Amino acid sequence: MANITPVQALGSGYALLANNDPAPAQGVFIPLANITGLSAAEANATTGDGRKVIAGLIEKINDNIQALASSARPVNLTIAKGQPTGVAINQVNQSFTITIRYDTTFANIVEVAPEPV
Questions:
Q1: Do 64 and 81 have their domain in common?
Q2: 60 and 109 assigned to the same domain
Q3: What is d(CA 40, CA 35) in angstroms, rounded to the nearest whole number?
Q4: pLDDT, mean of residues 100-106
Q5: What was the pLDDT predicted at 2?
Q6: Could you tell me which of 56, 53, 39 has the C-alpha nearest to residue 9?
Q7: CB 42 within 8 A of CB 36
């Protein structure tokens, strides 16, 4: 199996910005240091490892949500990290379950359901 690049994983608008680079378009900016275990070389748009970008984002999102008090966590978008399963010497599979409840009351529009008040 081949590695995928960050552009293949996240789309053609993906860009790795250096310090003081202007944003190429309106978007969401996440500092590289905020993505668990990701280096600039791994985040490079065309030569990096899209799998590492995705894994780092999922790990960081899970860590941040789990750090919230239970009562402050969303109920209509949840993430759970399973127990690692050994598959070979020095290798484990790590599963995450992300559950999103969608509100489909609007014709042809699917939105994340609002949190209960």
A1: no
A2: no
A3: 11
A4: 84
A5: 59
A6: 53
A7: no
Residues 55, 41 contacting (CB under 8 angstroms): no
For residue range 50-74, what is the model confidence (pLDDT) as tens digits? 999 999 999 999 999 999 999 999 9
Do 51 and 5 share a structural domain? yes
pLDDT in tens, 66-97: 999 999 999 999 999 999 999 999 999 999 99
pTM: 0.85
Last residue of one domain, picked from the residues 71, 87, 106: 71
Do residues 52 and 91 both lie within one domain?
A: no
Burial of 56 (0-12, 13-18, 19+ CB in 10 A): buried
Among residues 71, 86, 109, the one where a domain terminates is 71
State the Cα–Cα distance between residues 68 and 95, nearest whole angstrom: 21
